[in-house]
Amino acid sequence: MSDPAQIKLIVFDVDGVLTDGAIILDARGIESKRFHVRDGLTIKAAISLGLKIGVLSSRSSSAVTLRMNELGVDLLLQGIVDKASGLETLCRRAGVLMEDAAYVGDDLVDLPAMLRCGYPIAVADAVAEVRSEARCVTNASGGRGAAREVIEHVLNAQGRWCEVLDRYGV
């Protein structure tokens, strides 16, 4: 298993990780999702520093496509039930070895990817089985800044979080 200092790619699940897990449908069947703005800011900062960010979801949603386009995340796979295979695909596209990838999950469907990556991470409100397989568990729940916490954790381990802070005069 890798340590966070070696991570070149962080792959996030969507529902329950980048969102609070709620799936909101209006009367016409149009789906909306709620993403945390601080997660978005930090995802953009990580990409600008050369850390690769991927998103892997077992569901497909135009809201996810729109938000990831807005953030500049081009490593996006949706509608992938076999998350281990999806992670392999994203690693190949990113040119990163599986052991140099982190995967962030919250539910049972995420376990195959977590067991294959180099650095498995769970959000605070993940199911017990996922938390027990994680090398790192966030303090924040999914959709409540957990992605920011993960990125900050990895960049701190790499001695690069200060580069993000420098941009804001901190």
Written account of the structure:
- Helices cover 38% and strands 16% of the residues.
- It starts with 8 loop residues before the first strand and ends with a helix.
- Strand 2 and strand 3 form a beta hairpin.
- The strands form two sheets. It has a six-stranded parallel sheet, with helices on both faces. It has a two-stranded antiparallel sheet with strand order 2-3.
- By secondary structure, the protein is of the alpha/beta class.
Q: How many helix segments?
A: 7
The amount of helix comes to 25-40%
Rounded average pLDDT = 96
Order of helices and strands: EEEHEHEHEHEHEHH
Shape: globular
The profile of the biggest β sheet is:
6 strands, parallel
| Rg over CA atoms | 15 Å
Strand tally, please? 8
What is the spatial order of strands in the main beta sheet? 5-4-1-6-7-8
Give the end-to-end Cα distance, rounded to a whole number of Å. 33 Å
Helix/strand/pairing category = alpha/beta
Indicate the low-confidence ranges by residue numbers: none
Share of residues in strands: 15-25%
